[in-house]
Write a structure and sequence with these properties.
377 residues, alpha+beta, 3 domains, Beta-Lactamase, Heat Shock Protein 90, 44% helix, elongated, 11 helices
């Protein structure tokens, strides 16, 4: 059972217990749950002073003891711009205009850092009147993922729109030329190549989107076959060779057979070669090296461009991370290396990078030997 599922069940149990407390008037019944809950809990008075907290809340806010928090005011942990909204929600709760409230908000920890939380508050009866009971769940990770997804949708829309717009323009111009009395053959050839280039880019973008979705759903699977690695390298780099600008040098046994998912490794290599072209514009030689030792095939793609800053190396395989090129512009969906690493991991291998500013970058990955299919004539 996942941690998220456990927390959801605990949250539901607490809410059910609160409902019983509200109708029974016996707060001691949930003392054990309150003290040992993995979710942060607190009890507040009508003037919004914190009367009791559990250990989970102390941990969440970065303090060392309950006494550091007891006696403080709930607004002490809320950014100033949220105070008016907080007060309004609490007024409605205490005046019984609403039975409870739930919201997503940010809280300030002891060190000044901000965390995002889901806060659920309800009243329950006490001998002297009512007290406020609050459950707080840390949703910082989910919030960051949500922000990343929103940014990703914006980036994906832009990245998809660019080749579609260019492709449409090329086709419209070709249509007008074909309708004319004289045909500029060289121009049509140029536009056809340009259109093909944008179709290829669209294909890569759509593949990344589909692979990302399959990873999320746990549906990314492998279809392993025997194939000649040198032929895969030749095929995956054909779009680069057509430009005639970059020289791709393959070093490896031309007859070496690899047992892996050919289509998915093609996706990995295409991504690495495209990155070499994109981020090493001044380097016109790309080296692809393949070695086999102790049951493991190691494949590397090297360029001799500007290199990658050390502070960026640790983030290259993060989902949605996009590296600026030498024109200080970013392109792509920020999924290529993330998906490549997942494909390699699914094969049981590893992926890494080595780079030195001003000298170039090498991405490498390993594919362990599997039980190869029997080849029959």
């Amino acid at each position: 059972m996942s941690a998220d599922t456990t927390l959801e069940k605990e949250n539901a149990a607490l809410k059910q217990e609160l409902h019983q407390l509200k109708t029974s008037g016996h707060p001691e019944r949930f003392r054990t749950i309150f003290d040992y809950s993995r979710l942060a809990n607190k009890i507040i008075s009508p003037d919004l002073e914190i009367m009791e907290v559990n250990t989970a809340l102390v941990r969440l806010l970065g303090y060392s003891a309950k006494e550091d928090i007891i006696g403080t005011h709930i607004l002490d942990y809320s950014p100033q711009e949220h105070h008016a909204h907080w007060k309004l929600l609490q007024e409605h709760l205490w005046e019984k205009k609403t039975p409870f409230f739930k919201l997503e908000t940010s809280l300030i920890r002891k060190d000044g850092s901000i965390i995002w939380c889901q806060v659920t508050s309800i009243l329950f009866p006490d001998k002297q009147g009512s007290l406020g009971y609050t459950i707080i769940e840390d949703i910082t990770e989910q919030q960051l993922l949500k922000l990343h997804k929103e940014e990703f949708i914006s980036v994906a829309s832009h990245e998809l729109k660019t080749p579609i717009t260019s492709l449409k323009a090329n086709l419209q111009l070709m249509s007008r030329l074909l309708a004319g009395e004289t045909l500029a053959k060289e121009k049509i050839v140029e536009m056809t190549r340009n259109a093909e280039k944008h179709v290829i880019k669209l294909s890569y973008l759509v593949n990344d989107l589909l692979s990302s979705t399959k990873i999320d759903q746990g549906h990314l699977s492998l279809d392993k076959t025997n194939f000649v690695l040198a032929e895969l390298v030749e095929d995956c780099c054909s779009h680069i060779r057509l430009e005639g600008k970059y020289h791709i040098n393959y070093q490896g046994d031309p007859a070496f057979m690899l047992f892996a998912d050919r289509h998915k490794l093609d996706q990995v290599l295409v991504n690495l070669v495209n990155n070499a072209v994109k981020y090493a514009a001044g380097s016109f030689e790309i080296m692809i090296d393949a070695t086999h030792s102790d049951g493991v095939t190691t494949i590397s793609v090297s360029d001799y461009g500007q290199g990658i800053a050390p502070e960026n190396l640790a983030h290259l395989f993060d989902r949605y991370f996009r590296l600026s090129n030498d024109n200080n512009k970013t392109s792509g969906l920020g999924l290529g290396l993330y998906i490549s690493a997942e494909i390699v991991r699914l094969h049981g291998g590893e992926m890494g990078v080595e780079s030195e500013l001003g000298k170039g970058t090498t991405f490498w990955f390993t594919i362990p030997d599997g039980e190869k299919e029997q080849i029959t004539n």
